[in-house]
From TrEMBL:
Primary location class: cytoplasm
InterPro entries: CB, DNA_brk_join_enz, Integrase-like_cat_sf, Integrase_catalytic, Integrase_recombinase_N, Integrase_SAM-like_N, Tyrosine_recombinase_XerC/XerD, Tyrosine_recombinase_XerCD
Family matches, as PROSITE patterns: CB, TYR_RECOMBINASE
Lineage: Bacteria, Pseudomonadati, Bacteroidota, Cytophagia, Cytophagales
Annotated source species: Nibrella viscosa
Superkingdom: Bacteria
Alphabetic keyword roster: Cell cycle, Cell division, Chromosome partition, Cytoplasm, DNA integration, DNA recombination, DNA-binding
Protein family according to the UniProt entry: Belongs to the 'phage' integrase family. XerC subfamily.
Domain Core-binding (CB) positions: 1-81
Keyword Cell division on entry: yes
Role played: Site-specific tyrosine recombinase, which acts by catalyzing the cutting and rejoining of the recombining DNA molecules. The XerC-XerD complex is essential to convert dimers of the bacterial chromosome into monomers to permit their segregation at cell division. It also contributes to the segregational stability of plasmids.
Pfam families membership: Phage_int_SAM_1, Phage_integrase
Recorded coiled-coil stretches: none
Domain spans labelled Tyr recombinase: 102-286
Name of the featured protein: Tyrosine recombinase XerC
Amino acid sequence: MNFLDYIRYEKRLSHHTFMAYKNDLEQFQEYLRVQYELDKPEQADYQMIRSWVVSLVEEGMNKTSVNRKIATLRTFFEFMLRHKAIEANPMLKIQALKANRKLPTFVEEKPMATLLDDIDFPDDFVGLRDKLVLELLYGTGIRLGELVGLKTTDVNLYEKTIVVLGKRNKHRLIPLSQTLFKLVQDYLRHKETFFEGKADATALLVSDQGIAAYPVLIQRIVKKYLTLVTTLEKKSPHVLRHTFATHLLNRGADLNAIKDLLGHTSLAATQVYTHNSIEQLKKTYDQAHPKAKSD
């Protein structure tokens, strides 16, 4: 088995992640061919790898992208070492670049309340579907891929929960609020009536034509409605995931509970939201404390 087959079939990475690995490896291979006249990436040594990393930085590539390519090579050479294609791992001395962590972009509570409570959605199936998309993303914090992958059978109306298939094929159970629960019930009734039973019965969310919802459709819906209430540059489904986590934390939710709801494997990934919470505290302090702005 070659490396690409390994990450596709054994590690079962998403298509997007698989293509990123493939492209990184091809770029590295092309660099070796031009600079060192090498045909196989496993022939590279530490100095060659370091030279490639330096060239990426000099070209102006951001640190996050460079670190992803380093991670690709790390996985590749570990695979080669395990299969005895190389005698030593040249990545042992290669360290990831220290990237400046950006705070997650989120929508403030007031505009989210305006969007979901005050704005009138069209009084038809499409309007109800769009409202459900926004409520699910904000009310559960699920990822875009998890949302479009939801099946009707993933909704337990008796327990008021949904089962989400997350990264690495791990399932997690997320509770539905009473508002979201009633919205799902209403949506399912309208879906059956609107399409007269001819829509995709497996997929929870469907397009105007009754086929399973797809990422571009969801992105379009989110951008359309967030534009009504916020001037944020980013208006994506992931912004609503960040908003879900930030609002929970700001209102005192336990960090471990948020971690489980988001489907994070480690607490470190969830802790980034504490920075937003601290910024909120600073903002409140600056606005309210009589000595906050004194010289």
